[in-house]
Design brief:
The protein has 4 helices and 6 strands. It is of the alpha+beta class and about 80 residues long. The strands form 2 sheets. A 3-stranded antiparallel sheet has the order 1-2-3, with no helix packed on it. A 3-stranded antiparallel sheet has the order 4-5-6.
């Protein structure tokens, strides 16, 4: 796993590479580059203890989708 100025990147055991934009996390977007680099990880999560942020690999592989206009109307 590594972070650049715009994305968090993962290389998975099955050979896939996945990246997601920092904009998915307000906390990481507002953090300094140095704070973003201070992380630890397990097989399922990445932790930024100093920032109180946790990202699950499941959320990276299956990101939430935005509701369509019709779904938004039905939900209200």
């Amino acid at each position: 796993m590594w972070i650049d100025d715009s994305r968090v990147h993962f290389d998975l055991e099955d050979g896939r590479s996945v990246a997601w934009p920092l904009s998915w996390s307000v906390i990481l977007t507002n953090a300094t580059p140095e704070q973003r680099q201070r992380f630890s990880f397990s097989a399922y999560h990445v932790f930024w203890d100093e920032l109180d942020e946790i990202i699950g690999i499941k959320n990276v592989l299956y990101p939430p989708t935005r509701l369509t206009s019709k779904q938004e109307r039905l939900a209200t």
